[in-house]
Each structure stands twice: as structure tokens, then as C-alpha cells.
């Protein structure tokens, strides 16, 4: 499209170009338009399956510890192995999605993940369980980056944050339903039957996802050449804004992973001494995450990206501090605030990555997801270690340190933005 300095469009070719460009923009999905609801529901179900499978053992760690005779930190590897493998494989999977298509890769990833999910209940040892969970995490790596890249290509820019927020909301529903269902099922029939139930639910979600997701119309196949991929990754990592967003995602997830890996152990001990079914029901607070993630677009419109991140960090901090009190209502309120702050921060950061990256969106999203799940893996392991060393206060201290990192990085971003604003008028003169 010509710049303003070229004057009015006078040629048929230019007019044709404008018309073609407008048609291409108009063909993207938008709220209320054809296909948008199907797309939203399909990716919502993909998010449900992803988080339900990925964290299927998290609420069951005390039972896993008892069954295999291992400590909390050893049992936590059933979570860390899955999230760590996802972090490791998300970038290669994103490259495959650039070549073979987002929908194709997401379908294949879900198929492998649900198949492994049906094998997990039969793990004969803690080592075998950790290995199966690692394979499952590697398979699930094809979902997050491909989903956000699909949305960036198929949804109009103004609706992107809302669409990604709905996908993240699916994550929260998956995480909640997986933990609630496994809690009650495990109380009656043990942890193996509980994870089998999650596997069956994930199969249903995977089938519905494939049937509902509209075929992509704006996908252009990319190159699988390692040199091209390396250059794209290098360009993304050279972008200061993207680096800050990656770090923010990792730190938010470190808080979340640490808290929800350890909370089951805390609630089984005095003064709470809750049964497994009740502990599983505690994860109903994930519904708060569903709401906060799905409203992230309105939050950014009102407060801006950095203002939204400050609010998310402050909400998470308040929740961590409240959870220190030995009162079940206050612990629950603390979990509500932690969950709301985390999902809001995650939705804002992940959608900002898709908005910032103009080329190689799958790789940009993959780098975010890799950092995000590295944070989850680190949070799960370090949270368990901190709990073993200092009780719940140790886990909270780890979370507060991570939130301090989020606030510091956001402040640095604000300073960089002000510096850039002052520099540009000077350059203009």
C-alpha cells in the first residue's frame, strides 16, 4: 500500500491491491461472525485437554508419594517432567507447525498425548510414571504455540487478546476440572483410576476439537531449514520487549506451579487435615482464572499492558500473604487471588507476544511457552524443596521473590518506553 507521500490512488492496479487487502482483512474471524464461536469452543476444548493432562498428577501427589514410598520432591517430578519436556519441545514443534499447519500439528499432538494418558495409570514405578509424563509433555508441546499462532493468523487483531484469553480460560477449566475430578475419584478408587478418568475426558475433548476447528485460511507454509529457524529465534530474542514478556511468563508460572504443587501437602497436614476429595474441590478456584483470563482484553483496554501486569502482580502478592494464615477461609481467599492474578498476567503477556511479533509468530509464541513451562517446572520442583525446608512459608517466599521479578521487569519496560518516547522527538529535530 503506498505511503501518504504518493498521493491519491489513481491506477487500477493500486485500487485492486487495496480491495484485495481489505477482503483479506475482512475474511478473518471476528466475534459474532461466522466460524468464530466454533473456533473459540474448539480451542477452549484444546486448552481443557492440555491442562487436564499436563497437571493430572498434581492434586494426587500425596497419594503418589504414599503408593511408591517417595518424598514430596520426588513425586513432584511427575509434574516437572511433563512441563519440562513441554518447554524443551515447544520450539521444534512450532517449527513443524510453520511447515505442516497449525491445525494438523495440534491434532497430532493431542492424539499422542491422550494415547499416553491412557497408559499412565498402568505405570509400575515412579520412574516409569515420570518417563510417561515426560513423553506426554513433549506431545502437548504442539498445542500452546500453534494455538496462539493460529489465532494471530485467523482472528482480527482487535479481537486477538479476547480470543487468546478464551484459550487460556480453557486452560484454567482443564486445570480445575482435572484436579476436582481426580480428587474425588482418587478418594474412592485411587490415583490410577483418577488419571484414567482424565485420559478419557481428554479423548472426548480431542475428538470434538478436530471436528469443530475451522480450516485455516491465512496460513502460509514456512521453511524447516535450521538456519531460517535459528535466524527467526535470534531475531525474537534480540527484541527487548519480547525478552521481558518471556521472563514475566516464566516468573508468573513459577508462582503458580509452586503453590499448586505443594498446596495438597499443606491441606492434608494439621491444622487442616482435609480428605483427598475436599482437597480436589479446592481447585474450583480455577474458575476465577477462567474469568480473569477471558476478561484480559477489557483489562488491557482500561489499564494498558503494563498497568494490567502491575495489577496482576499486586493481586498475586496479596493472595500469597493471605495464604500464610492458618485459617481455611483465608487460605482459600489467598488461592483465589493468586489464581486471578496469575491467569490475568499470563493472558496479557502471551497475547502481547502474539501482537509484538510480526514474523515467525509460532516461534515467538513457542519461546514464550518454553519460558512459561520452564517456570512451571522450576516452580514445581523449587516449591516442593522450599516446602520441605521451611514449610508453607518457604513456598510463599519463593512466590514473593518471583512476583518481585515481574514488577521489576515491568518497571524496566516502563522506563524503556519513556526513554524511547523522549528520544523520538529529539531525533525528529
Quick tags:
429 residues, mainly alpha, 17 helices, 81% helix, 0% strand, disordered N terminus, disordered C terminus
| Portion of residues within helices | over 70%
Query: What Rg do the Cα atoms give?
Result: 22 Å
The proportion of residues in beta strands is under 5%
Low-confidence stretches: 1-25, 424-429
Largest sheet: none
Number of strands: 0
**Mean pLDDT rating:** 83
Q: End-to-end span in angstroms?
A: 27 Å
Categorize the overall geometry: globular
Concise description?
The chain has 429 residues and is mainly alpha-helical. It is 81% helix and 0% strand.
Polypeptide structure, described:
The chain has 429 residues and is mainly α. The protein is 81% helix and 0% strand. The chain has 17 helices and no strands. The protein has helices at residues 12-26, 36-54, 61-68, 72-75, 77-100, 102-119, 126-140, 144-154, 160-189, 191-212, 226-237, 240-268, 276-281, 286-294, 296-322, 328-356, 361-428. The longest helix is centred in the C-terminal third of the chain and has 68 residues, at 361-428. The two termini are 27 Å apart. Residues 1-25 and 424-429 have low confidence and may be disordered.
Amino acid at each position: 500500500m503506498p505511503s501518504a507521500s504518493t498521493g491519491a490512488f489513481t491506477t487500477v492496479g493500486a485500487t485492486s491491491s487495496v480491495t484485495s487487502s481489505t477482503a483479506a482483512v475482512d475474511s478473518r474471524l471476528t466475534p459474532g461472525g461466522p466460524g468464530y464461536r466454533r473456533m473459540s469452543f474448539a480451542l477452549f476444548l484444546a486448552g481443557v485437554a492440555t491442562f487436564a493432562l499436563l497437571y493430572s498428577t498434581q492434586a494426587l501427589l500425596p497419594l503418589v508419594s504414599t503408593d511408591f514410598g517417595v518424598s514430596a520432591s520426588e513425586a513432584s517430578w511427575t509434574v516437572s517432567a511433563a512441563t519440562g519436556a513441554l518447554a524443551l519441545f515447544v520450539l521444534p514443534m512450532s517449527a513443524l507447525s510453520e511447515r505442516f499447519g497449525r491445525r494438523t500439528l495440534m491434532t497430532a499432538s493431542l492424539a499422542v498425548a491422550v494415547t499416553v494418558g491412557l497408559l499412565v495409570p498402568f505405570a509400575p514405578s515412579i520412574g516409569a510414571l515420570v518417563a510417561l509424563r515426560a513423553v506426554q509433555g513433549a506431545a502437548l508441546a504442539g498445542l500452546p504455540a500453534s494455538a496462539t499462532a493460529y489465532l494471530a493468523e485467523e482472528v482480527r487483531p482487535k479481537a486477538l487478546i479476547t480470543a487468546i484469553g478464551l484459550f487460556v480460560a480453557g486452560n484454567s477449566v482443564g486445570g480445575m476440572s482435572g484436579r476436582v475430578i481426580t480428587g474425588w475419584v482418587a478418594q474412592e478408587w485411587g490415583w490410577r483410576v483418577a488419571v484414567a478418568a482424565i485420559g478419557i475426558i481428554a479423548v472426548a475433548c480431542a475428538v470434538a476439537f478436530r471436528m469443530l476447528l475451522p480450516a485455516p485460511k491465512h496460513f502460509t507454509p514456512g521453511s524447516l531449514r535450521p538456519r531460517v529457524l535459528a535466524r527467526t529465534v535470534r531475531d525474537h530474542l534480540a527484541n527487548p520487549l519480547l525478552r521481558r514478556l518471556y521472563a514475566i511468563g516464566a516468573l508468573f508460572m513459577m508462582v503458580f506451579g509452586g503453590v499448586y504443587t505443594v498446596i495438597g501437602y499443606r491441606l492434608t497436614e494439621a491444622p487442616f487435615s482435609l480428605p483427598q476429595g475436599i482437597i480436589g474441590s479446592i481447585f474450583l478456584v480455577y474458575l476465577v482464572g477462567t474469568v480473569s483470563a477471558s476478561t484480559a482484553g477489557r483489562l488491557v483496554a482500561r489499564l494498558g499492558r503494563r498497568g494490567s501486569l502491575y495489577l496482576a502482580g499486586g493481586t498475586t502478592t496479596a493472595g500469597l500473604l493471605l495464604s500464610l494464615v492458618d485459617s481455611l477461609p483465608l487460605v482459600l481467599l489467598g488461592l483465589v487471588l493468586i489464581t486471578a492474578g496469575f491467569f490475568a498476567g499470563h493472558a496479557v503477556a502471551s497475547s502481547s507476544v502474539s501482537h509484538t511479533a510480526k514474523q515467525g509468530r509460532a516461534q515467538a509464541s513457542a519461546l514464550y511457552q518454553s519460558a512459561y513451562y520452564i517456570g512451571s517446572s522450576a516452580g514445581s520442583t523449587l516449591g516442593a524443596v522450599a516446602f520441605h525446608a521451611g514449610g508453607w512459608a518457604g513456598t510463599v517466599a519463593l512466590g514473593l521473590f518471583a512476583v518481585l521479578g515481574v514488577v521489576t521487569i515491568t518497571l524496566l519496560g516502563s522506563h524503556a518506553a519513556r526513554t524511547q518516547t523522549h528520544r523520538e522527538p529529539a531525533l525528529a529535530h
